[in-house]
């Protein structure tokens, strides 16, 4: 196995996202900047009302209400039965808290590969050895069992960013059971969960198997709240005391107003035939627009079934590498992310330089114009 600190890249994906802020057609970062729907606009108009309501609400009550609303949104009865939950400002804060915890316990972990590089970078910064496990290796019983024996934890990104790969229920159960059998911690980054219909309950599975687990969520990938977001972290009883101590060293709480606003967005999304049905239609229409404009050969094979709000794409064979491609399209006024950094343990090797990633969740005009420019460039 190859440890992460052998291949730390000097320029990170977040650096490229920062550059994207200065480019007219920014399709680089995966944050939700699409327009509010008509129903969401009604929430925006009620901000003063929400402010005054949350002003009177005790923080513990606000947190409990937020968790209850989120549990409803993901159709999870298991969330209410976890040993302990806490709310952090962002998913990156959750990753760093997990990294601090693993570092404190001198633990090594497997980490999904490829995936967004900040997970590996934060683990590295905290001195946690991380080793890559590919999506196919995760569902290979022989490989998983062998490699779990060499680490203390499995850090799973599901659904995965950038490919959108989302485990089936039986695959998830198998991975959980393997971690349980090997007496390993399973850590789950579920930041992109809300892009998929919630037809089975990961919390219920983790609780019923009496697993040792940490799992965290993110609202910032889905709801267009101008980066007003929160990351819910939950864990089994064996982790709660140390995680709570580390949390309390840095955080007191998340804004009650933020939790109140997000809870309103959850409630609005829950209406309709099923949770998030309207949002899923918005994402599907944008993906359809992109795939109608751009030849299917430019969609990475591992992302053909993706439902998440980013698209993992291929650069034409024998063409530019990913960094040159990013520079060329920047000159045309479009920002995208290079693919190499997602391959966090082997950044820059030839097999990591053939991809780029774009976001679907931008203002519609910016998204469509950016995709049209990319389509024309890729065609020629």
UniProtKB/TrEMBL annotation:
Residues 59-197 form the Aminotransferase class I/classII large domain. It comes from the Bacteria. This is Aminotransferase class I/classII large domain-containing protein. Signal peptide: none annotated. Pfam families: Aminotran_1_2. The lineage of its organism: Bacteria, Pseudomonadati, Pseudomonadota, Alphaproteobacteria, Hyphomicrobiales.
